[in-house]
């Protein structure tokens, strides 16, 4: 299952994009968005999704 970013809560800081090992996060309009086809929730890279753990706005949730 992929994650999603709540665009209205996104601070557009870029932390999530930098943390994503799959390049699944990109700017879309005024906020970042996660491509569900690329998101593996960091399986094989970390114990938990890095973007979600490091998001200062806590706007990354389960899709």
What does the model show?
The protein has helices spanning about 15-20, 50-55; strands at about 5, 25-30, 30-35, 60. By secondary structure, the protein is of the alpha+beta class. The chain has one domain: Alpha-Beta Plaits, CATH 3.30.70. The chain is globular and about 30 Å long. The N and C termini lie close together (about 5 Å).
Taken as a percent bin, the fraction of beta residues is: 15-25%
Shape: globular
Give the topology string: H per helix, E per strand.
Answer: EHEEHE
Biggest sheet statistics: 2 strands, antiparallel
- Rg, rounded, reads 10 Å
Mean pLDDT: 96
Trace the largest sheet across and list its strands.
Answer: 1-4
CATH domain class name: Alpha Beta
Structural class: alpha+beta
Cα separation of the termini: 7 Å
Q: How many domain modules?
A: 1
Unreliable runs, pLDDT <50, ≥5 residues? none
What assembly state would you assign to the polypeptide chains in this entry? single chain
**Which CATH architecture is right?**
2-Layer Sandwich
Number of strands: 4
And the CATH topology?
A: Alpha-Beta Plaits
Instruction: Please report the number of helical segments.
Output: 2
> What portion of residues is helical?
10-25%
Tell me the layout of helices and strands:
Elements: E1 3-5, H1 15-19, E2 25-28, E3 31-34, H2 50-54, E4 60-62
Antiparallel strand pairs: 1-4, 2-3
